[in-house]
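Table S2 (text version). Query chain:
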Amino acid sequence: MSNTVPDKKPDSERGAENGSIRRVLVVDDSRLQRRILVASLKKWGFEVIEAESGEAAMAICESAPPDLILSDWMMPGMDGLEFCRAFRDLPSDGYGYFILLTSKSEKNEVAQGLDAGADDFLIKPVNSNELRARISAGDRILEMQRELSDKNRMISETLDQLQAAYDMIDKDLIQAKKIQESLVPELSRSFGNSRVSLLLKPCGHIGGDLVGMFATDPDHVGFYSIDVSGHGITSAMVTARLGGYLSGSYFDQNLGMEWRPDGSHSLREPETVAGLLNERLLADTGIDEYFTMAYAVVDLRTGLMKMVQAGHPHPLILRRDGRAEFIGEGGVPVGLLSGVPYAQIEMTLQPGDRLLLYSDGFTECRLRNGKMLEQVGLLDLIATCDGRQTGREFLDDLFWRLSQAMSPEFGMEDDVSATLFEYHPP
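Corresponding structure-token output:
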């Protein structure tokens, strides 16, 4: 048995069955010239169509465009250049290779032909070997063009599939946003003469910030500001779980509350709540996220505030007399270390005082000068707000001023949230 591999034919000797060019249109007003060209083309295995004028050739191309066109330049009526331009204007999914047959060889005339859309030229009288070589060159170009078209088609189909997947994800994220918004059903609520107002602005559809409030009796209120590590879906899922742990609707699930002997609920100490949340999060297998938190409980009769700060930005007290002071010592985020102690802050609020809990979406916001807002910038921002505004109006104005100050290049890079407590005793 012979192991000899047949020699591969060079391009100039390959038949039409091996290439991209199969159907050839010959356009010439000379019947003799057409017969000469047609004879060679058929001998090489091509399917050949003839046309004696540019008009007749256009009619053929409109119904069934050929792979290759050999057209004389000088013809009565529509000449080769006009025919080439008209052919290029036809709508087509593929590409037809166009060779002009001419006795012209000057550079400006060649430029005219290329400008009209011709791919190649042959000087008459046409040499058979040169014609075959030019067809082979055109065949290679058409093959590359068709491969490129196939790849573009695959890319287009893939992009359509990706767009469909994106649309589905976007639809799910919109629904997830609605679910996350349901975790904060009230953005403002009065507790006697005092009031808690909330701001929640995710940087995407959903975010990792959470704010909330709840009360067990007319004299005490608890409220918080939470920022889960990371962004996007994973962080949002953690906030959904935390929303259950600190639910203002289902007290039995709320870790901030405990049962009294008479069957009622009372608010736990903030340091206890932080410890319970820490152990609960660490016990949830598969969760690598942690969160920072500022959580406070206020006695509405006396103004006594108890608060825990777990890695969250320093809460800000806005005194009635215009003074402002940051409080807290930082603390350790929740969900990082088991058994970590959380220190509790206690202080008395005076009538008219306001307590602002906020996420680092404020202080780490990048400004137009490239720097971050930080604590000093937050004070400056608050100073520009209308002093008569309270509650949600104040928070909305504060966020608007932040959006005006942030860098347009980077925009809103992190979720922005805040909880505002305004103290007015009975």
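Notes on Table S2: The domain at 19-151 is CATH 3.40.50.2300 (Rossmann fold). The two ends are 108 Å apart (CA to CA).
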